[in-house]
Amino acid sequence: MTEFTVSGRWQARDGWESFEKEIQAENEDVATERTYTEFGSKHGLKRTQVEIEEVAQ
C-alpha cells in the first residue's frame, strides 16, 4: 500500500473548510473512496458535501 495525501474542502455548518489527510491505499481511486467514506461516517456528510481537489503520492 502507498500513502496518499488527499486535499480539498468539506461543507461545515459555517461554510466550507479545507482539509488535508494522509490515506493508505492501493491507488488514487481507492484513496478518494476512503476519504468520502471517512467524512460520511465521522461527519454524516454526503459525497456532494465533500470536494476533493488533489490526490498526491
TrEMBL record:
GO BP: any one term: translation
Complex formation: Part of the 50S ribosomal subunit. Binds 23S rRNA.
Recorded family membership: Belongs to the eukaryotic ribosomal protein eL20 family.
Species per Swiss-Prot/TrEMBL record: Halorientalis brevis
Keyword Ribonucleoprotein included in the entry's annotation: yes
Chain's gene name: rpl18a
InterPro entries membership: Ribosomal_eL20, Ribosomal_eL20_dom
NCBIfam families named among the record's database cross-references: PRK00773.1-1
GO cellular component term, pick one: ribonucleoprotein complex
HAMAP family referenced in this protein's UniProt entry, alphabetically: Ribosomal_eL20
Swiss-Prot/TrEMBL keywords: Ribonucleoprotein, Ribosomal protein, RNA-binding, rRNA-binding
Name of the protein in its database record: Large ribosomal subunit protein eL20
Domain Large ribosomal subunit protein eL20 stretches: 1-56
MF annotations from Gene Ontology: large ribosomal subunit rRNA binding
Keyword tRNA-binding: no
